[in-house]
Amino acid sequence: MAYDFDLITLGAGSGGVAASRRAAMQGARVAIIEGGQVGGTCVLRGCVPKKLLMYAAQFGDAIRESRGYGWAVAEPRFEMAHWAATKAAETKRLEGVYRKLLDGAQVTLVEGWAKLDGPNRVKVGDRVLTAPHILLATGSAPIRDSIPGIDACATSDELLDLQALPPRAALIGGGYIAVEFASMLARLGVEVSMFYRDRLPLRGFDDMLRTAAAAELQAAGISLHPGSAPSRVQRAGEGFLLMLGDDRVSDFPWVLNATGRRPNSAGIGLESLGIQPDQAGAVPVNETLGTTAPGVHAIGDVTNRKNLTPVAIAEGRALADSLFGKVKRQVDLSDIASAVFMLPPIATVGPSEAQLTAEGRAITVFETDFRPMKQAFIGGQERTRMKLLVDTASDRVRAVHMIGADAPEIVQSLAVALRAGATKSDFDRTLAMHPTAAEEFVLMREPSRQLGA
């Protein structure tokens, strides 16, 4: 059978673009289909604009802190409309960059919504495309039906397009999206309340990070309501009522739905190939990123494994190399560094203390907690907390956890050491760079405690 293309990719986000470009560079004829903007969630309505808003929030802190360093400055005032316009111009520029990358790699961009149409076939409107290999890179989207009435609330997508900030806001959820935006909005002048089910935010993270995050959120003036996820949201005029059980009701002019994301697997024709998503909507894949349908592969958030942009990119490139290159590759999903861009930020690589304890191995814990020099000088209260988890028998460092200024930059570098199998003795032999916060990772000598056998 003669095919139109060698590979058809559904979704022009970071993973889909990376896979398509790599495949084309290997000589494959590639089409990529996108019904929205080229660039995907991370570039257009996720990681990039979110971090730009974090920078805006940081500037407010920096201006206020500068007074302690001798600068005479007026009270800052944030203009959301100005930020939003600049953000829109930047994301438009980035979309143009992604389009040029596809064009430069000679990848055919087909604009429209794709649907699988049986083996080797994809429909886009009335057009049918064929290929021996089809890649699902459709990503994920905010969940809008987690509780009754929440569909009327804004998600992170809408927050980043606001022209003016509300005076008060409720954030429903305790994950990284809720924590990040709560931290930012509070510094931009919004009175923030967070409602979530668990005792602490950031379920799945190390308890040290979770406890410290809660303390920093409260220090920023955020009202935390653990164990108080609303049972229902009701529209009330221009605002919202949160039904909290026991006849408790709270009203807010604006509510952010940060209750999670769901794989974009509905409506793309999986049933035509007998592909059955799991209960969360994820497309199951094997170790080579193949689905249950021959010739159909999936990467990134639609598989709901490690939902991080660099993972989707790495998976896409590995798949392209395996299908069209000379070397078959797989992506190791263990010990992947990640960050939470709250203020101060969190970064982590490796398992939590609870996860390692559950493995039944003997673990040595090293911790430190201090006020950074920048804060101590002006009497600030923001703290930095660090933790190393070391396998007692082998001396290998299994995990690095940090909350504090520059945590993502520091932990990204240390992730290389963990990947290389560094031991605690390697850390101890490394001379400190002074004065830095990062030096504390090589100066922790006395263990906090021993765990396990």
Detail the topology: elements first, then pairings.
Elements: E1 7-10, H1 14-25, E2 30-34, H2 40-45, H3 47-66, H4 80-104, E3 108-111, E4 114-116, E5 121-124, E6 127-130, E7 133-136, E8 140-142, H5 156-159, E9 168-172, H6 176-187, E10 191-196, H7 207-219, E11 223-226, E12 232-236, E13 239-243, E14 249-252, E15 255-257, E16 261-263, E17 296-298, H8 309-324, E18 338-340, E19 346-349, H9 353-358, E20 363-370, H10 373-377, E21 384-391, E22 397-403, H11 407-419, H12 424-429, E23 449-451
Parallel strand pairs: 1-2, 1-7, 2-3, 7-17, 9-10, 9-15, 10-11
Antiparallel strand pairs: 4-5, 5-6, 8-16, 12-13, 13-14, 18-19, 19-22, 20-21, 20-23, 21-22
Helix pairs in contact: 1-8, 3-6
Extended strand count = 23
Strand content: 15-25%
User: Could you estimate the helical fraction of the residues in percent?
Assistant: 25-40%
User: Mind telling me the CATH superfamily name of the largest domain?
Assistant: FAD/NAD(P)-binding domain
**What is the CATH third-level topology name of the largest domain?**
FAD/NAD(P)-binding domain
Q: Which regions are unreliable across 5 or more consecutive residues at pLDDT < 50?
A: none
Mean model confidence by pLDDT: 96
| Major sheet size, sense and barrel closure | 6 strands, antiparallel
CATH class of the largest domain: Alpha Beta
Order of strands across the widest beta sheet?
18-19-22-21-20-23
Radius of gyration: 24 Å
Global shape? globular
Distance N terminus to C terminus? 61 Å
How many helices in DSSP terms?
Answer: 12
